[in-house]
């Protein structure tokens, strides 16, 4: 496992996305969402969600919006995408939102490449970005039954601060809202990264 971890990490590059990446983001966004939730959530709702939330146009608009930052993880040889991440202004039903908050809107790694440190490397990029913007919190919404992701977020220092209803392709899902307090996180980060 340790050898595999080193292998994947040494072969995987994480880069910031720019205009022109909308097609690849749409592809990996849909593919990873389908992979994560097939057999868990309703298939037609997954497809409806992907058609909108992972459309080329959606990613094109985010890439054109300076408030959004997107990353791709690509593996060599070939530089095929194996993961991606989106950080955005917060769109979460919390009463105490401020302009010092950011949302970890999406973080997905293909299952073949999970559990080998890539998610942590992606999150490290988001945290570095949040520090650049002097953000105080990184927030996220996660399906309340997605125990694996919640385990990852908890290990990374997030904790639950609320709940929301999330419309996933017409299906109402219960999500947890989680927070990573960035002011106190720098010490912790030295431990986890
Ligand atoms: C969540 C996800 C991005 C995490 O990425 P990953 O590459 O698998 O995670 P890493 O290998 O970098 O793990 C980092 C740390 O979290 C821990 N961790 C990972 N999954 C965990 C789990 N289910 N429970 C507890 N800890 C976990 C690891 O052990 C590791 O700890 P360490 O630093 O002590 O070694 C990835 O699993 C994924 O894409 N899942 C499917 C999509 C998804 O659910 N995305 C989130 C939607 S809200």
Oligomer: single chain
Structural classification: alpha+beta
Contiguous runs where pLDDT drops below 50 for at least 5 residues: none
CATH architecture: 3-Layer(aba) Sandwich
**Small molecules in complex:** coenzyme A
Q: How many strands appear in the DSSP assignment? A: 7
Q: Could you report the average pLDDT, rounded to the nearest whole number?
A: 93
Distance between the termini: 18 Å
Q: Order of strands side by side in the largest beta sheet?
A: 1-2-3-4-5-7-6
Strand fraction equals: 25-35%
Number of continuous helical runs:
7
At CATH level 3, the topology is: Aminopeptidase
Order of helices and strands: HEHHHEEEHEHEEH
- Rg is 16 Å
CATH first level: Alpha Beta
Residue share in helix: 25-40%
Count of distinct structural domains: 1
Protein described:
With 193 residues, the chain is of the alpha+beta class. It has one domain (2-192): 3-Layer(aba) Sandwich (Aminopeptidase). Helix content is 40%, strand content 30%. It contains seven helices and seven strands; from the N terminus they run αβαααβββαβαββα. It has helices at 2-11, 22-37, 43-53, 56-63, 118-132, 147-155, 185-192, and strands spanning 12-16, 69-75, 80-88, 101-109, 137-143, 159-168, 171-181. It has a seven-stranded mixed beta sheet, with helices on both faces. Strand 4 (101-109), helix 5 and strand 5 form a beta-alpha-beta unit. The longest helix is centred in the first third of the chain and has 16 residues, at 22-37. The mean pLDDT is 93. The chain binds coenzyme A (COA). Residues 36, 107-109, 114-120, 142, 146, 148-149, 151-152, 155, 192 line the site of coenzyme A.
């Amino acid at each position: 496992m340790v050898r595999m971890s080193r292998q994947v990490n040494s072969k995987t590059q994480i880069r910031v996305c720019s205009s022109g990446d909308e097609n690849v983001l749409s592809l990996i966004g849909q593919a990873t969402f389908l992979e994560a939730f097939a057999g868990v959530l309703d298939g037609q709702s997954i497809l409806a969600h992907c058609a909108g939330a992972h459309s080329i146009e959606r990613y094109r608009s985010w890439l054109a919006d300076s408030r959004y930052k997107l990353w791709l993880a690509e593996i060599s040889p070939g530089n095929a995408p194996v993961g991606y991440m989106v950080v955005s202004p917060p769109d979460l039903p919390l009463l105490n939102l401020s302009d010092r908050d950011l949302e970890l809107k999406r973080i997905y790694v293909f299952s073949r490449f999970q559990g080998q440190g890539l998610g942590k490397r992606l999150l490290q990029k988001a945290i570095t970005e949040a520090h650049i913007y002097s953000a105080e919190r990184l927030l996220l919404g996660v399906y309340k039954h997605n125990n694996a992701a919640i385990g990852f977020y908890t290990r990374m220092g997030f904790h639950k601060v609320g709940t929301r209803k999330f419309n996933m392709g017409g299906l109402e899902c219960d999500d947890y809202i989680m927070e990573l307090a960035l002011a106190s996180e720098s010490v912790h980060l030295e431990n986890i990264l």
